[in-house]
Amino acid sequence: MSNTREIATELLTNIYSKFEFFENAVFLNKNFCRLNGRDKAFVRYLVLNTLRRNGQVDKVINDFVKTPIQKKHFYILNLLRLSICQILFLDIKEYSIVNTAVEISKKYKFDKFVNGLLRNICRNKNKILQNLEPKINIPSWIQSDIIKNLGKETLSKISEAIVYEPNLNIKIKVNSLKKKNWEKVLNGKFIFSDILKTQNDGLIEKKPFFNEGDWWVQNISSTLPVKLISKIFQNVDKSKVSILDVGAAPGGKTFQLIEESFNVKSLEISQRRIKRLKQNLQRLKFDANIICQDFFNYECSDLFDCILIDAPCSASGLMQRKPEILIRDKKENIKELIHKQQRMLEKSKELLKIGGYVVYCVCSIHSSEGSNQVETFLSNNKNFEIIELDNIANNFGKCLKKGMLTITPGGFGNNAEADGFFISIFKRHK
Question: Is residue 397 pLDDT above 70, yes or no?
């Protein structure tokens, strides 16, 4: 176990010091790559839960450590973060946690300090837990935006939801639905006719019928844009409806559009992401028209009936699934993203038919990336009209303003667990 916890501490240190995304950190860590599947899952469990509880864990350290730990001992700080999270929030025996941490810290001559601190926390565990609100895991600048636009009650619900491991949503291929008893095969439960909720154990490729291409992973929130597009074009021949999927990789929305028989072009700027998209297409036995190009430089002689923009964003809606977002200070970086989103919306006008639709979505709950963007675009483009979405809001999320659907992390109908998401649709009149 000491080996797995050492590797977990290494990963946590890299994520905190370099603001790496978790998946990138594990990809670059050779020690993690050498672990077996069970140990990999355990390391994931430790690191991701520590990140989800980042604010609570750091409060305990600040309360119990009188002298701040120096930067040169950053590894020890992260070992403490990992250990404290286990003691307070995970179902792991305390003696195992403490003994392993002490053994690891001997290499750095911090064993007495680590032993004393962790045993003190164990003795005061119940008292500590009484004074730890989950909302402190969310950065204050994100909290402020949530309170302003969604309310204090929503902040409480989000903060309570994101500390738990999210379930995995699996989209079953339409032509595979009747082949198997999928609830039994994948040990899950259908939350929609084609979307199954199951446990996320980090071993997606090992699940039954993955290699056979009968399903793909896609959160329920991100399936909604295509479901809405299908509703808009439900009375026409979909094969004659041209759609541009912007930022298509890893491909979930493209796969949905293919299943619905739309004439889709998938645009992606990253060669690495296109490689992944092609791998997924091959596994699923789908064909797609893939274009590797910067959207801002893309030109096409034939205009589109619909442009689907899943824009780059702060990813604040993914706090539960990607908790490293909670420790990344994006308050300044978000300005660049907002500017890019604005440019993408303006670019869409050049490629859209009169009578066509723009579907704008982001996996963010920031108003600056959602409702504010839509209002700015509509204010500058009077020939576009927002489409009413209130008729579906009760099932999926909140329409805080006309035609602007916000889904909060963890919240959804049908007992589903959703990523945070924003969707708005507008139609070009001239």
Answer: no
